[in-house]
Amino acid sequence: MEELSHFIDGRRVSGESGRFSDVFNPATGEVQARLPLASVDEVDAAVRGAAKAQAGWAAANPQRRGRVLMEFVRLLQRDMDSLAEALSREHGKTLPDAKGDIQRGLEVVEFCIGAPHLLKGEYTSSAGTGIDMYSLRQPVGVAAGITPFNFPAMIPMWKFAPALACGNAFILKPSERDPSVPLMLAELLLEAGLPEGVLQVVNGDKIAVDAILQHPDIGAAGFVGSTPIAEYVFAQGAAHGKRVQCFGGAKNHMIVMPDADLDQAADALVGSGYGAAGERCMAVSVAVPVGEKTADALIERLVPRVESLKVGPYTAGEDVDYGPLVTSAAKERVLGLVESGLRQGAELCVDGRNLRIQGYENGFFVGPHLFDHVKSDMDIYKTEIFGPVLSTVRADSYEQAIKLAMDHEYGNGVAIFTRDGDTARDFAERVNVGMIGVNVPIPVPLAYHTFGGWKKSVFGDLNQHGPDAFRFYTRTKTVTSRWPSGIKEGAILNFQSVD
């Protein structure tokens, strides 16, 4: 069995706590590696090493830091296949989906290469007689990221790339379910020229998370995961004086108007609802067709598409549309929610409960499920399922459809499919959700825009990647400077205006 490690001060190091977590192969259900879980002292050692390395890294000019990230992009492209293989082996994603995970992280790194421009401050000449004012963007020092299992490459890069570009050191605490790729990324950054200690990878559980949130030398922390834990991380981090950004759960709706291309809408729902086995915070898990005729026609198109989905291990290559869930507990949770939907009166149009894959009977596979006639008071509507389950909630009107998305406690992403520009513009203006798709089912912004939801999907004022990331990982210092035109005699004791 493989023994995994931490990555501290430029090398892999064994754990010292004596506590370990099993890393599974989700396709077989077998334990494939053992991961050390860090103690408070180990987290402290990583932070001390990062703080020591940060001063020299911050002193490097931003274009030099950008060149390290540029070389890192080249190395990511060189090792794409091996990274994707490791990701699929621990998470269960298909290889194309694993490469997409890496690619969307890589694009944020590419954006961060432009740090010299993004870190420019502001300048006002002659704000008063002989007085100039200017602002500086300076790193927070040591930052930290607590990242989830569902994107073990992308979200760590969303966190550490802008932090490093700004001159910070970074403590990464990845998910203990699929930790190998974050360790590989740390090694590639070292190869790209990042000084030892600037990026530390500390594996662990709640003990490590609390140690990060309470450490006095960490100035900023970010989290992505479920809403209850996001609330906890935000409260704990803020209570200990940190700048914190936390991203929580989602329940993303896709409204299908009567004038929509229903074949296009059905394809979009299948791709966004079942891709990665539904383990995406931007997955569409609720279809909202407007009008009974639209709903009947949409279900008629969805059923054969969902029934034809191919589920299996990533090793099956192109013969697989999606793979297993990440753990046995995740599988049981999803199936439990399916049962609750049936008990509460939803109609199960496609039943994936009896999926069996020969040779992989112990894997964490869940077949595709499609519900119709779901109501807003049902558990399968209110809860983020995080599995291959699509719920259809029929709406009588556009106003009723938009109200569903606006009344839900989550506000991560939402989409509308329509041919009418007025409807699309009204929808984008009115809906209280952070990321909007118009005929786009998964409206994840590109790297040079920011990613973030509203309501209980986010805690904090600044979003991930794009310009917001550079604001989050820097502090603004404003300098007021006066150079007298000649030598003045005597002190001025009263308060002076700059005019």
How far apart are the first and last residues' alpha carbons, in Å?
73 Å
Number of helices: 16
The beta-strand count equals: 23
CATH topology of the largest domain: Aldehyde Dehydrogenase, Chain A, domain 1
CATH architectural category of the largest domain: 3-Layer(aba) Sandwich
Radius of gyration: 25 Å
The domain count comes to 2
Average the pLDDT over all residues and give the rounded result.
Answer: 95
Biggest beta sheet summary: 7 strands, mixed
Seen as an oligomer or otherwise, the chain set is single chain
**CATH class membership of the largest domain:** Alpha Beta
Topology at a glance:
Elements: E1 2-3, E2 6-8, E3 11-13, E4 20-25, E5 30-36, H1 40-59, H2 62-78, H3 80-91, H4 95-112, H5 115-118, E6 123-128, E7 131-139, E8 142-146, H6 154-165, E9 169-173, H7 180-192, E10 199-201, H8 206-214, E11 220-224, H9 227-239, E12 243-247, E13 252-256, H10 262-274, E14 284-289, H11 292-307, H12 328-343, E15 347-350, E16 369-372, H13 379-382, E17 389-392, H14 398-407, E18 410-411, E19 413-417, H15 421-430, E20 435-438, E21 454-455, E22 458-459, H16 467-472, E23 474-482
Parallel strand pairs: 1-5, 8-9, 8-11, 9-10, 11-12, 13-14, 13-19, 14-17, 16-17, 19-20
Antiparallel strand pairs: 2-3, 4-5, 6-7, 7-23, 12-22, 15-16, 18-21
Helix pairs in contact: 2-4, 2-7, 3-4, 4-6, 10-11
General description of the model:
The chain is α/β, with parallel strands linked by helices and 499 residues long. The chain folds into two domains: 270 residues, Aldehyde Dehydrogenase, Chain A, domain 1 (3-Layer(aba) Sandwich); 187 residues, Aldehyde Dehydrogenase, Chain A, domain 2, CATH 3.40.309. Helices cover 39% and strands 21% of the residues. The chain is built from 16 helices and 23 strands. The strands form six sheets. It has a seven-stranded mixed beta sheet, sandwiched between helices. Strands 10-9-8-11-12-22 form a six-stranded mixed beta sheet, sandwiched between helices. Helix 2 runs antiparallel to helix 4 and helix 2 crosses helix 7. The mean pLDDT is 95.
